[in-house]
Design a protein that fits this description.
Elements (H helix, E strand, L loop, with lengths): L1 H19 L4 H15 L5 H6 L11 H13 L3 H9 L2 H6 L7 H11 L4 H9 L11 H16 L4 E2 H16 L4 E6 L1 H4 L4 E2 L2 E7 L2 H8 L5 E7 L3 E6 L3 E8 L4 H9 L2 H13 L2 E4 L2 E4 L5 E3 L3 H7 L15 H6 L14 E5 L10 H10 L4 E7 L11 H15 L6 E9 L10 H4 L4 E5 L8 H13 L5 E2 L17 H11 L2 E5 L9 H9 L4 E4 L11 H10 L13 H7 L4
Parallel strand pairs: 4-7, 11-12, 12-13, 13-14, 14-15, 15-16, 16-17
Antiparallel strand pairs: 1-3, 2-4, 5-6, 6-7, 8-9, 9-10
This protein binds one DNA strand of 29 nucleotides through helix 2, helix 4, helix 7, helix 9 and strand 6.
DNA sequence: GCCGTTTTCGGCCCGACTGTTTTCAGTCG
């Protein structure tokens, strides 16, 4: 998929350069949209090129399709090479500084001959910027602050980190007099796997008062902007919080505006305009008479546009609006639909708890079953079980199960897929288990073909029911290894093998786009926390978030079925 | 540069905050 990443980067750079050249803003937007859509593909764009299906990618027309094909052919795009020569290289760096856009960058380069961010910092500190047109003391300070933010590295944080932080801020705001509703919006509400800024919406009859209270909250380090209805600040180390206040009647419209995504909003507003409406964060209006037609709730706005409610997790302008027009949106799975956890480790391998403890905790959660799935013998570092140990575990599980009514421990394994695609346990052993999960834990550096072969071969084993954490990625730590996903999804369908969505916060693997793609192949999914300690049961919510972003319904997911039905569904021929 | 149940040409979301300005451009989300 390096093609996809490289092309996306080139298109995004082209957009930046065109911006510096003050080109047509819609042309710039076209490049940005194309970049984003290519980055989101689950298939190598080279394969799509070979099938001559580039034009089916949204935002790709004749011109961009040719540029993609040129890159696949030659590894270069001449147009980009030419553009690069037309603007100073540093201009692309300068516009990454918050507060500096194309116009300011141009002035800095032209008048001060700035060659690097470091040099800009030096000049700003020496107050050499304040003589430039449109720049005075304050702007100089802002630029320095922007450079500091860059140096600190405002990285995206995992959803599991952002959520508690947002909840903390919200709890402070709840105590602020005059606030009515408070909601986390943005990518947090869309449940993206990583979050950059935290967006919070508040309704109040006295917005200014709320804003004044916000900027004085104790956990705020620095105020970036402080207006009467909108403010921004840095909290904790370096997390930016954007807050917006509207009157209570505008809650729905503001929620929609602030939840985004930006692309979804643009598409929705375009649609509204075509139908003679206007949408902003205050409501939906008749474009001619300016009469307000609604906006108290999001449902109201979608309804006026002739659409059903689009769940926040789907709002990425990835086909959800077209699907809503046809009234074909999926009824997304919810956390309450989950009847059990399909991936649980005990202290027999690298977990921390006994089978009894885990069963008890699962029952307390209202689960009907769990799958005990310890590692297999080859995975020594994780205390993989020998055959004899596994057979004893199966016996122990049978014994414990006799104590339960309405709850069942399913005997399973997370068996290693060995280098040649064979499994770490013989069929004779696997046949005695209720459920078999297969996974790769070694050989990440192998070729795409080899890794794909290993997985497909494992799927062809008649005892393998689930393949877990398919791509091996660890968020922020390890890239996914290369796989031919099309081939794997096809094999999963043919062999009736489910793919796991790992709810383990660092994995979330399959991710959202892969899940969505896999769903189109008609395969089944399993949700498992890959639990190593009892408290990890709570991570299931993150798995459900991925599934929702992948458009999955209750029926697509194995552990929404009662145990007996689940076991029937995973049977192979 | 893309795109089409009003279009193959003429559109392309909408508004807040800041700083430097005397009425608005630049930036951001």
């Amino acid at each position: 998929m390096t093609n996809n990443i490289e092309i996306a980067k080139i298109f995004s750079d082209i957009a930046d350069i065109l911006e510096i050249k003050s080109e047509n803003q819609f042309r710039i937007r076209a490049y940005r949209r194309a970049a984003q859509n290519i980055e989101g593909l689950t298939e190598d764009v080279a394969d799509i090129t070979n099938r001559e299906e580039l034009l089916r990618i949204p935002g790709i027309g004749k011109d961009l399709a040719e540029k993609i094909a040129e890159f696949i052919d030659t590894g270069k795009i001449r147009f980009f090479e030419k553009l690069k020569r037309e603007v100073p290289k540093v201009s692309l760096e300068l516009i990454t500084i918050p507060g500096i856009g194309p116009k300011t960058a141009k002035i800095l380069i032209k008048q001060l001959k700035i060659k690097s961010i470091r040099e800009l910092e030096k000049r700003a500190k020496a107050h050499k910027l304040a003589t430039l047109p449109g720049i005075r003391r304050k702007t100089e300070e802002n630029i320095l602050r922007g450079i500091q933010i860059i140096n600190k590295g405002r990285e995206r944080m995992p959803l599991g980190v952002a959520l508690p932080l947002a909840e903390e801020i919200i709890s402070h705001l709840t105590k602020t007099p005059g606030t009515k509703q408070i909601a986390a919006c943005g990518s947090l509400r869309r449940q993206k796997e990583t979050i950059r800024d935290i967006d919070i919406l508040v309704t109040s009859r006295n917005p200014k008062k709320v804003m004044d209270a916000f900027v004085k909250l104790p956990l705020i380090r620095e105020v970036l902007a402080h207006g009467s209805t909108k403010s921004s600040a840095i909290v904790k180390e370096s997390t930016q919080v954007d807050i917006r206040v509207v009157k209570p009647r505008s809650f729905g419209a503001a929620l929609m505006y602030f939840t985004g995504s930006k692309e979804h909003n643009i598409h929705i507003r375009e649609l509204a305009a075509k139908k003679g409406f206007k949408i902003n964060e205050y409501g939906i209006f008749n474009a001619k008479t300016h009469k307000r037609l609604g906006g108290n709730t999001e449902e109201q706005i979608y309804k006026i546009l002739g659409l059903g409610f689009v769940p926040p997790e789907l709002r990425e302008d990835a086909g959800e609006i077209e699907t809503a027009k046809k009234d074909k949106l999926p009824k997304l799975i919810g956390l309450n639909d989950i009847r059990g956890d399909l991936h649980v480790h005990t202290k027999a391998s690298d977990g921390s708890n006994s089978i009894d403890e885990l069963a008890e905790a699962a029952m307390k959660k209202g689960y009907e079953y769990i799958v005990i799935s310890d590692h297999s013998k080859t995975l020594r570092v994780a205390g993989g079980l020998q055959e004899r140990e596994l057979l004893n575990q199966i016996k122990a599980i049978k014994k414990i199960n006799k104590r339960f009514r309405g709850f069942r421990i399913l005997a399973g394994t997370e068996v290693d897929i060995i280098n040649d695609g064979s499994l770490d346990f013989d069929d004779k052993i696997l046949a005695q288990l209720d459920i078999v999960i297969a996974a790769i834990h070694t050989g990440f550096k192998q070729s795409k073909e080899k890794l794909t072969m290993r997985i497909v071969k494992a799927m062809q084993n008649k005892y393998v029911n689930i393949v877990s954490h398919l791509t091996g990625r660890l968020i922020g730590a390890r890239e996914p290894y290369p796989l031919n996903l099309e081939e794997i999804f096809r094999a999963a369908k043919e062999t009736n093998t489910a793919l796991e969505i790992s709810a383990y916060p660092q994995r979330l693997d399959l991710n959202d786009t892969n899940s969505k793609k896999a769903r189109e192949s008609g395969i089944m999914f399993s949700l498992g926390t890959d639990l190593h300690a009892i408290e990890h049961f709570e991570n299931m919510r993150y798995g459900v978030s991925v599934a929702r972003r992948g458009w999955l319904e209750k029926k697509d997911i194995l552990n929404t079925y009662p145990a007996a039905q689940l076991l029937r569904k995973i049977k192979k021929n």
